[in-house]
């Protein structure tokens, strides 16, 4: 797909957004009763459910236990009806396993694992509808679920995608822009310190553009961080008032 | 089997050395290990030796029905195999997490960056197209599998020749190799990966890490670049890595210049291989065996070459008494010890700077001196010596 | 009598429940009054919403107290089965998400998923339920295949009922694009898919079966058991009841035994309950449809 279709002459993208505009974010915390923490996050048309169990005793073989910190176990699963073309297996293929590993590494860096030696924290994400930015929405949803579960974190983790079309960096790409051949840079940062915890790039662009695309992605992350923080505050104040009332 | 555990002192030794700008094998932070690329007698067989890491890639092709979503393109399939031969903790047959990571990175660098022109592989739209399959086998794991695997895959793809086909109406005739010369693949650009191990919260990065450095590091930064300074892929991973944007950009610059050199080297090796084939006398992979200078034993040999920080060794050989203790590394048949000496004998002056000579030459074990007081000349010094026959 | 709580497992390998002897005694002897105040033939509150997943041709989410199921239906063109060339196909796939319980991680939930999937297939096999010949496009060559994908998000007892009601709602809202066959001279006729996204047809789901689970506790049987009640009973039946009050499939669950007379009376009760459930569900689906396009709530509450 040529660049002219992804970015019009007026500077508008396919879904009408400006290059530096994020998609609409809606989030709901605490939707499931039996999970310790759960969250539902929508970024545009991408919908993700995350559930957190833990910290609890290591399930399965005890050899996985780490003597000085908790072991983070993640599972990334996509529903079979989530994509345009039906997916035969929700998990177990290479891409899902790779995503699960990256989620584990990201959250092992952000959670204060040294407080729970020899235990396990489970994070399960389920993609209900995929419209680009699946991994980033999963990271954000899992982070909200961790906050709902009350797991101590060093800092929140926020993730965002950025792309480059006709020398203009775009933030928060959707499926059409992603499959159109333009490069996609996924970044997860800790918003307070601005440090990068995970980064990956698909497709290619010249190294001179790296700086501005990276800047766009980091700015997008910080913006998403602000929005999610507001949602978190709203949820916790609601919880507080209902506890005080009872 | 489980991987041999990494002891805390080994890990801290590596981290401390890197903080001082030194690496365990004597390289600088932006230096790569010796890279050797050899090609086999079959078209599409490439072996890469990156230090001690050995990876082999083989390319094959078959005719298949193209995917319905991309009916006018051929297909490229990349498969990585890691058997227990490479390292004791690899499972035969099943790719563990590390294997999947290597597989995905090679795929992203080579397949997703579209370095091969897939449209030229189409024979009949929607009916027949070439499927190119790259099988990468990891033969020995001594760190930095990703770079070696990508280089091997790229070398194999550049080296490969597929059979020529002609269309007779709607019939496809595949010519045998002796009928018509096989056709090389159309390579649009040469993408390679360069890996950095990240230490100290992302402030220090070391290019081309060995296995020991990889395991001691906080995380890893993998950059995929081609000769035109275009970034093909990028990945930061590791549990405990926090890196700043400026560090990423400087790594990218270092990697870009290295990538240009590596592509040049690959092209030279390909040209040399082509020249040898024309001459007729062709050894294939046998030529790579002669490149071995070290004996490989069943024991893992930890070789460490730290440079002494301040003093010149020739000076020390003359002056017998020195009250300034020096940190020196001593090699003794596989056992590395880090010792602080206040005196050093001239017979050791060679050992720090050169690789260890074969075992038969080392006759005397290096002795250590423990200086209790200040001046070694006055007080008796304890000597521990052992003669080896 | 010991008063220590015992760890029990329900008949369908669902989560372990801790129950004390006093609770078990109440469940056994409760006289038409259950722990949550219901009578024996009452259902727990149901929340239903359709059309949540835009990538699927039909979808629904059903929440029966604590059991949460999301169903998506996708339609594709494929060749029909060789023994049924004039009919379309209906394929079920059940996935137990690890969100429900960590034991479902990886392949842990496969046993339960396969059980539910097989019973659903059995209950839809009868010609009375759904008219598959409506799905045929070109006799013997092309037909519509409906892939019904069920995602179990939370297990709160009575999964069979929840799944069947969700599937029925999803099939009700499924829109199949209309297709025209333009015959060409010679071998291969071409199929033309309609360009208009609203030019679709819907299936007649009047007779699509609902599953009713009846658990036998003591001398009585209960409809819509909670996980605690499931653990206390030793046997039960799951009955697939179609809209015309006919029973299309029966399965006995649990390790206990059933007297033939009680089995017959359970089937009678089940078919009556099933008919009522079917009627109410169709009424609600019609109400939702006529209410028009409103903002989808989904999981946002």
UniProtKB/TrEMBL annotation, chain A:
GO biological processes: nuclear mRNA surveillance; poly(A)-dependent snoRNA 3'-end processing; rRNA catabolic process; U4 snRNA 3'-end processing
GO molecular function, a single term: RNA binding
InterPro entries named among the record's database cross-references: ExoRNase_PH_dom1 (IPR001247), ExoRNase_PH_dom2 (IPR015847), ExoRNase_PH_dom2_sf (IPR036345), PNPase/RNase_PH_dom_sf (IPR027408), Ribosomal_Su5_D2-typ_SF (IPR020568), RNase_PH (IPR050080)
Subunit-level organization: Component of the RNA exosome complex.
Keywords, comma-separated and alphabetical: Cytoplasm, Exosome
Domain Exoribonuclease phosphorolytic span(s) in chain numbering: 21-152, 155-220
Location (main, coarse): cytoplasm
Protein name: Putative exosome complex component RRP41
UniProt family annotation: Belongs to the RNase PH family.
Keyword Cytoplasm part of the UniProt annotation: yes
CDD domains: RNase_PH_RRP41
SUPFAM superfamilies, A to Z: Ribonuclease PH domain 2-like, Ribosomal protein S5 domain 2-like
Gene3D superfamilies named in the record: GHMP Kinase, N-terminal domain
UniProt xrefs under PANTHER family: EXOSOME COMPLEX COMPONENT, EXOSOME COMPLEX COMPONENT RRP41
TrEMBL record, chain B:
Domain of life: Eukaryota
GO biological process: exonucleolytic trimming to generate mature 3'-end of 5.8S rRNA from tricistronic rRNA transcript (SSU-rRNA, 5.8S rRNA, LSU-rRNA); nuclear mRNA surveillance; nuclear polyadenylation-dependent rRNA catabolic process; rRNA catabolic process; TRAMP-dependent tRNA surveillance pathway; U1 snRNA 3'-end processing; U4 snRNA 3'-end processing; U5 snRNA 3'-end processing
Keywords: Cytoplasm, Exosome, Nucleus, RNA-binding, rRNA processing
Main location as per UniProt: cytoplasm
Cellular location(s): Cytoplasm; Nucleus, Nucleolus
Record-annotated Exoribonuclease phosphorolytic domain positions: 32-163, 189-257
Nucleotidyltransferase keyword on record: no
Key word rRNA processing present: yes
GO molecular function: mRNA 3'-UTR AU-rich region binding
Pfam families: RNase_PH (PF01138), RNase_PH_C (PF03725)
InterPro entries cross-referenced by the UniProt entry: ExoRNase_PH_dom1 (IPR001247), ExoRNase_PH_dom2 (IPR015847), ExoRNase_PH_dom2_sf (IPR036345), Exosome_comp_Rrp42_subfam (IPR050590), PNPase/RNase_PH_dom_sf (IPR027408), Ribosomal_Su5_D2-typ_SF (IPR020568), Rrp45 (IPR033100)
GO cellular component term, pick one: nuclear exosome (RNase complex)
Family statement drawn from the similarity comment of this UniProt entry: Belongs to the RNase PH family.
Protein name: Exosome complex component RRP45
Automatic annotation (TrEMBL), chain C:
SUPFAM superfamilies reported in the protein's UniProt record: Ribonuclease PH domain 2-like (SSF55666), Ribosomal protein S5 domain 2-like (SSF54211)
Residue ranges constituting the Exoribonuclease phosphorolytic domain according to the UniProt record: 43-177, 207-272
One GO cellular component term noted in the UniProt record for this chain: cytoplasmic exosome (RNase complex)
Single GO MF descriptor: mRNA 3'-UTR AU-rich region binding
Keyword Cytoplasm part of the UniProt annotation: yes
Presence of keyword Kinase: no
Keywords assigned: Cytoplasm, Exosome
Localization per record: Cytoplasm; Nucleus, Nucleolus
Alphabetical GO biological process terms: exonucleolytic trimming to generate mature 3'-end of 5.8S rRNA from tricistronic rRNA transcript (SSU-rRNA, 5.8S rRNA, LSU-rRNA); nuclear mRNA surveillance; nuclear polyadenylation-dependent rRNA catabolic process; rRNA catabolic process; TRAMP-dependent tRNA surveillance pathway; U1 snRNA 3'-end processing; U4 snRNA 3'-end processing; U5 snRNA 3'-end processing
Predominant localisation class: cytoplasm
PANTHER family: EXOSOME COMPLEX COMPONENT RRP42, EXOSOME COMPLEX EXONUCLEASE RIBOSOMAL RNA PROCESSING PROTEIN
Family named by the database record: Belongs to the RNase PH family.
Protein name: Ribosomal RNA-processing protein 42
Record gene name: EOG090X0CWA
